[in-house]
Design brief:
The protein has 162 residues and is α/β, with parallel strands linked by helices. The chain is 48% helix and 15% strand. It contains six helices and five strands, in the order βαβαβαβαβαα. The structure holds 5-O-phosphono-beta-D-ribofuranose (RP5). Keywords: Isomerase, Lyase, Purine biosynthesis.
């Protein structure tokens, strides 16, 4: 299955260092992704085109990262039937609180699942879990990942106890 399953978009290439964590998670779980710079205000027509066609290309979940007046995730969510996960990107002046509020405060009817400021890793994991709902082998891999997380905590405890 080489067709991209998860679309990872961001408002600017300056968001890429943050969004790399989502890309890395998808790579770890061997899920093909498509990555694109799509700006709601600089390339509005491209955003509409992207959002309206993603599901036709086989994309199942969209992760959208943006900073400042971060309307990209909400606008994309309004244009696609796919689940959208928003990543508030940290900003220089307001440290991403502006991005968080812009993304998380969606009025009822058009949901955006919002992760913590800068936490693209959790966006990637949530997207994998959404795919896992209909792919048992992926669900098993998520469970193994959680077991590894637990093991790493116990290992650290072991070192503390030494
Ligand atoms: C938003 O404006 C982007 O998502 C980015 O976080 C922010 C700043 O963009 P640049 O000025 O760095 O291109 O659209």
């Amino acid at each position: 299955m080489n067709e991209p399953q998860i679309g990872i978009i961001m408002g600017s290439d300056s968001d890429l260092p943050t969004m790399q964590a989502a890309i890395a998670v998808c790579e770890d779980f061997e899920i093909p992704v498509e990555v694109a710079i799509v700006s709601a205000h600089r390339t509005p027509n491209r955003m509409v085109e992207y959002a309206q066609t993603a599901h036709h290309r086989g994309i199942k979940v969209i992760i959208a990262g943006a900073g400042g007046a971060a309307h990209l995730p909400g606008m994309v969510a309004s244009l696609t039937p796919l689940p959208v996960i928003g990543v508030p990107v940290a900003t220089r002046h307001l440290q991403g609180v502006d991005s968080l509020y812009s993304i998380v405060q969606m009025p009822g009817g058009i949901p955006v699942a919002t992760v913590a400021i800068g936490n693209a890793k959790n966006a990637g994991l949530l997207a994998v879990q959404i795919l896992g709902a209909t792919r048992p082998e992926l669900r098993d891999r998520v469970e193994r990942y959680r077991e590894q997380l637990a093991a790493s905590v116990l290992e650290k405890q072991g070192r503390l106890d030494e």
